[in-house]
Specification:
This protein is an alpha/beta fold. Helices cover 41% and strands 15% of the residues. The strands form four sheets. Strands 2-10-9-8-7-3-4 form a seven-stranded mixed beta sheet, with helices on both faces. The chain has a four-stranded antiparallel beta sheet with strand order 11-12-15-14, covered by helices on one side. Helix 5 (96-107) runs parallel beside helix 6 (123-129) and helix 5 packs across helix 11. The longest helix is centred in the C-terminal third of the chain and has 28 residues, at 284-311. The structure holds pyridoxal-5'-phosphate. Residues 37, 95-97, 121, 168, 172, 200, 202, 232, 234, 240, 245 line the site of pyridoxal-5'-phosphate.
Length: 391
């Protein structure tokens, strides 16, 4: 079956955050929404049909993560990433942001140090700050239009008493898919300084060839013992509204500690629709859909690159290895950040994520969501050209 990703679907009156918050966040209700990380593509029909089928049963009572659900996750992790996990290692979380908070609470004490690599997905900061832990930033280095890890600097920070490291693997917003070698070096430092790791792998399925996602905990039994991995079908299959994600912990003590925290927070139960959607998504149909959506997003990446090279050469697109979130560098224009914000939202009529929300090293950068029909991408590029093309 060939899926359609080109038709523009009107999301008005569906309580879509991407649309409904345009005015409050961007001051322009008409801006082209290319910010929050969900897709403008239809959620796959085999998922929708599964939900409809479930609704044919008249009772929607308390429901658990059954064997079929757990096995679907186990099989998917193996098929996608060659990672062998056990059903008994799984824990439910309504979302990864919730899970991050619970893991910070479970594995650190107030005042202890938690490290992140900036620029990074901003709820990492909140999970640390809101829980009264100390935020330690280890900035990534931006060289040759791509991001790298300064391992010496990372080790210096870890040495200073870091308890927990929140790794973004692959890394939102800079689009890096960390290599096995990079991950192994990070693992080595974590083991040396006895640092526990949260590996947020929500974007793990959204990888462009020849890059390959390596689950952090799959590196060695030693690092698996220190790691809690979060993942979800929500980004891959556009089901974020179903609030269903999961944690993977092979260390039974860590699993117990985490589950105790989840119990304290009262968030251990999912919804029928979330469970059903995951079972439908993590399937042969899901694999076929994923291959096609990646091909389509790959074409969008090529479109942006060619257009920028031809018409706005000063605006650079950081190499996108994974995720559908482009990291655009406007620094060559020499325009200050707040003026760039104004030009993008008012003059160009574009709602992109402000790079500074991911840390101050995001100054002069904006994040553009290209999981959208090509005609939207084309429209965004033309709007950018109108404002920046002759500067
Ligand atoms: C790295 C990362 N983690 C977590 C999330 C959100 O996860 P959830 O919706 O399951 O809380 C996102 C969404 O953009 C993300 O990019």
């Amino acid at each position: 079956m060939k899926y359609d990703f080109s038709t523009i679907i009107d999301r008005a009156n569906t309580s879509a955050i991407k649309l409904d918050r345009l005015n409050s966040l961007f001051g322009n209700a008409q801006a082209l929404p290319m910010w929050v990380a969900d897709m403008d593509f239809a959620t796959p029909p085999f998922i929708i049909n599964r939900l409809i089928q479930r609704l044919n049963h008249p009772i929607l009572g308390y429901t658990h993560a059954d064997d079929a659900y757990n096995n679907a996750i186990v099989q998917w992790q193996y098929n996608q990433h060659g990672w062998e996990i056990q059903p008994s290692w799984l824990a439910f979380t309504p979302g990864i942001v919730a899970g991050l908070n619970h893991a910070v609470q479970a594995f650190t004490q107030p005042g202890e140090k938690v490290l992140v690599q900036t620029p990074v997905y901003h709820p990492f900061f909140y999970a640390i700050n809101n829980n009264g832990r100390e935020l330690i930033k280890s900035p990534l280095t931006y060289i040759d239009n791509s991001y790298h890890i300064d391992f010496q600097a990372l080790e210096e920070k870890m040495k200073g008493g870091v308890k927990l490291f929140i790794l973004c693997n692959p890394h939102n917003p800079v689009g890096r898919v960390w290599t096995k070698d990079e991950l192994a070096k990070m693992a080595e430092i974590c083991l040396k300084y006895d640092v526990t790791v949260i590996s947020d792998e929500i974007h793990a399925d959204l990888i462009f060839k020849p890059h390959k996602h390596v689950p952090f905990a799959s590196l060695s039994p030693q690092i698996a013992e220190k790691t809690i991995t979060f993942n979800s079908a929500s980004k891959t299959f556009n089901i974020a509204g179903l609030t269903s994600a999961y944690a993977i912990l092979s260390n039974p003590d860590m699993l117990e500690t985490y589950n105790r925290q989840v119990e304290l927070n009262g968030t251990g139960h999912g919804s029928i629709m979330g469970y059903e959607a995951v079972k439908a998504a993590y399937s042969a149909d899901g694999q076929m859909w994923l291959d096609q959506v990646l091909e389509y997003i790959g074409e969008n990446i090529a479109l942006v690159k060619e257009y920028l090279d031809a018409y706005i050469p000063k605006l650079t697109m950081v190499e996108l290895q994974g995720t559908y979130l482009l990291w655009l560098n406007f620094n060559a224009f020499g325009i200050n950040h707040s003026e760039l914000v104004r030009m993008l939202t008012r003059d160009a009529g574009l709602a992109l994520n402000d790079g500074q929300m991911f840390g101050l090293d995001g100054t002069g950068f904006f994040r553009m969501n290209i999981a959208t029909p090509k005609s939207n991408v084309q429209e965004a590029l033309e709007r950018l050209k109108k404002v920046f093309g002759s500067l």
